Amino acid sequence: MHVTVQSQPFDLGAISAAFAAGRHDMGAVVTFTGIVRDDAGTLDRMEIEHYPGMTERAIEAIAAEAKERWSLGDVLVIHRHGTLRPGELIMMVATAARHRGDAFAAAEFLMDYLKSRAPFWKKEFTRDGATWVAARDEDEDALSRWDR
Which tens digit of pLDDT belongs to each residue from 109-120? Predict the structure, then answer.
């Protein structure tokens, strides 16, 4: 299991290739990469804050839960903080499993958690000013399907 919270960009291709390399006992690797999007065409930047140490521990705990729920060989989570511009990579989840169903389900579980519960605070800066990003109902609904 590998969890990283970092400010610098990451190389999606290199990380994906390294994560998949040598997986002779795994039949599936699923990756998801989030990109800063600009729905209205007015976003200048997004600033993401977090508490070092606390954020990593929270993500490690949910990654460990994913490994308990599904038959996973490995989990990787990268999430950026600091100033990000539209089009930049913001996060990545990768899961490795013997079968694709476990890999897909665990990756989706992790993405839903990162979107709704991971301890990050996001502020968007547009031509009209700055606003904190609020939780969306559809994100909460997506997360609720994983309740035991």
Answer: 999 999 888 999
Domain membership of residue 136 as a residue range: 2-144
Residue with structure tokens 């490690």? 60
- Count of domains observed in the chain: 1
Please list, residue by residue across 130-140, b when 16 or more beta carbons sit within 10 angstroms of its beta carbon and e when fewer do.
Answer: eeeeeeeeeee
Q: What CATH code is carried by the domain that includes residue 50?
A: 3.90.1170.40
Q: Could you tell me if 74 and 110 are in contact, meaning their C-beta atoms sit under 8 angstroms apart?
A: no
**Tell me: the pLDDT tens digits for 13-32?**
999 999 999 999 999 999 99
Distance CA 80, CA 20 (A): 21
Mutual orientation of helices 54-69 and 100-116 as an angle, nearest 10°? 150
β-strand partners of 46: 84, 124
What is the CA angle 3-46-136, rounded to 5? Answer: 80
Between CA 34 and CA 12 the distance in angstroms is 11
Task: Tell me the pairing of strands 82-84 and 129-132.
Answer: unpaired
Tokens found for residue 1: 């299991």
